[in-house]
Amino acid sequence: MSSTDGSENYSVDVLNQLAARGDHEAIVHGERRISGSRVRETVLRFAAALRRAEVGPGTGVALFTVNTPETVMLKLAVHFLGGRLVFVPPEPGTRELEAYVRRADVEVLVFDPVFEERTESLLREAAVREVFALGPSTVAADWLSVSANATPLGIEDAADGRLLATMLYTGATTGPPKLVIHGPGYYENVVAVSKVIADTESADPRLLLCTSLTHSSGHHAALHALLSRQPLVLTDGSDVGETLSLMGEQKITGMMVTPATLYEMLDHPDSHGGFPELRTIYYVGAGAAPDRLRAAMDRFSSRLWQFYASTECGVIAQLLPHEHEPGRPELLASCGRPAPGVAVEVRDEYGDVVRTGQIGEVHVRGSMVMREYWRDPERTAEALKDGWLRTGDLAYRDHDGYLYLVDRVKDVIVTGRTADCVYSRLLDDLLISLPAVRDAAALGVPAPEFGESVHVVVVPYDESDLDTDELTRQVVDALGSLYAPVSYSVAASLPHTASGKVDKEALRASLPPRPE
To answer: Of 182, 200, 235, which one is at a domain's C-terminal end?
Structure first.
């Protein structure tokens, strides 16, 4: 293979780095410690077994799995063969997953036994040629047994890298789910970025993954760890106490989290323990409240590194560690400046670039931008034009080029006698900074007089201390009367999407019907 003709398969880069790890740990999961040599051998053995199952260039192989070493190794094996990797996230309901698997043209499905019941239901409606379980199952053959005696392929058997593809699910509030397709350009960027952000300062770097391997952030972070020769420590981040324990036990130097997980860590009593090895917390997927970021820097005595990213276009911008500084507190409200190789424009509804400081929709161009929505030319045409992707995010840029997200296009609340815009991100961040509020989300709800009014779902530290009149007063003082919430509801927690963003569609659906 030659990188000059575009045929290099990134999985070979990963396998070479694993070989360099030798007998040193490459993946850690619970009590399991798997060496680089063993991971490499298993990937090539899995690839041989997949080839025996007639997986080759373009074959759709779906993974309905949790954060285990086998998930990491299967991903690499599928791409080693030039297959089309299809991530099946656990969050959607069974009917939506059925539609996803059918539309994704899945030929081979590998599932974790924890999803056995859902897989059995899914397979009644979605025909799949081959099905395997990662362990004993009544639904399918055990992949670990099937692949155990396969003779590993050689590095020379790697498929042309131009053939591989990855399919990622992104939910839709109306119509069928969107199926994002990424090609080799995405992985060329992953390889390049991994060299730039590798931890060269820690004597024994170890990356803790707290996001899902079947979502873009977890997928990217796992590859970064393996490419930079640092052990990948796996957890799903759902048990914050376990996460904090792992940070100490494994002497974690870096970790990948969503802002929601970071908030939970800050609110957990065990977060006050010492984590002397922790150097960097990478947070990704959604903007974080500045007050929470300041608290995280104080609590963990580590640097923060933000990635503004989306399923459709990978990493868009980053706020680097040195830009999280007390001397420039306004930058904590920013998502940084465009990542290397990424072009960003903020445009109005007519497609024209707006002035500095003016709010518009973020448009992105770069190698990580999706190829298309799978077999969906209409929505592809809506999102992509002349190589630029409409993100659906609203933001403005300052004179130094920093980008400040204010809302999603679909979440803007249009209210008041003059139909002004309330940007919910600004209100969310303000509310989270108030002493009584653990978390909060602003929504637009129907209002007979103004079209929409501002409703806030608030998660208090102590409901008995919650004074909504006082919250409203503080909102008006800070943001003006237009942002004053008209109504409130109290929740124990907020729902989040797979990428860590507050799921405002789910919140709207959970609100009781409003009187006519």
So the answer is: 182
- Residue at 89 is within a domain: yes
Q: Is it the case that residue 215 has pLDDT exceeding 50? A: yes
Axis crossing angle, helix 259-267 with helix 240-249, rounded to the nearest 10: 80
- % of the chain exceeding 70 in pLDDT: 95
Residue where one domain finishes, among candidates 140, 166, 182: 182
The CA–CA distances, whole Å, from 113 to 87, 118, 141 equal 16, 10, 11
- Mean pLDDT, the chain, integer: 90
- Quote the percentage of the chain above a pLDDT of 90: 69
The answer on pLDDT for 5 being more than 50 is: no
227-250 pLDDT, tens digit per residue, is: 999 999 999 878 899 999 999 999
CA distance 229 to 35: 11
Name the residue range of residue 153's domain.
1-182
pLDDT over 80 at 177, yes or no: no
Instruction: Give the residue-averaged pLDDT of 180-209.
Output: 88
Q: DSSP string spanning 36-81?
A: HHHHHHHHHHHHHHHHHTT--TT-EEEEE--SSHHHHHHHHHHHHT
Which CATH number do you get for residue 417?
Answer: 3.30.300.30
User: In what order do the strands lie in the sheet containing 437-447?
Assistant: 437-447, 451-460, 487-490
For residue 147, which of 39, 50, 80 has the smallest C-alpha distance? 50
Residue 421: pLDDT band by 50, 70, 90 thresholds? confident
The residue count for the chain: 516
How far is residue 61's CA from residue 16's CA, in Å, rounded to a whole number? Answer: 24
Contact 142, 133 (CB under 8 A): yes
The string of pLDDT tens digits covering residues 493-504 is 998 876 677 888
- State the SS3 of 154-168: CHHHCCCHHHCEEEE
Contacts of 200 (CB under 8 A, 6+ apart): none
Question: Could you tell me if 180 and 103 are in contact, meaning their C-beta atoms sit under 8 angstroms apart?
Answer: no
Q: Residue 85 pairs with which residues in a beta bridge? A: 61, 166
- Structural domain contains residue 238: no
Tokens 């779906």 label which residue?
62
**Domain membership flag for residue 214:** no
In a domain, 69, yes or no: yes
Q: Give the phi and the psi of residue 277 in degrees, each rounded to 5.
A: -80, -20
The label of the residue with tokens 């009644």 reads 124
Closest CA to 490 of 451, 462, 449, 454: 462
Distance CA 306, CA 210 (A): 15
Structure tokens at 20: 């360099």
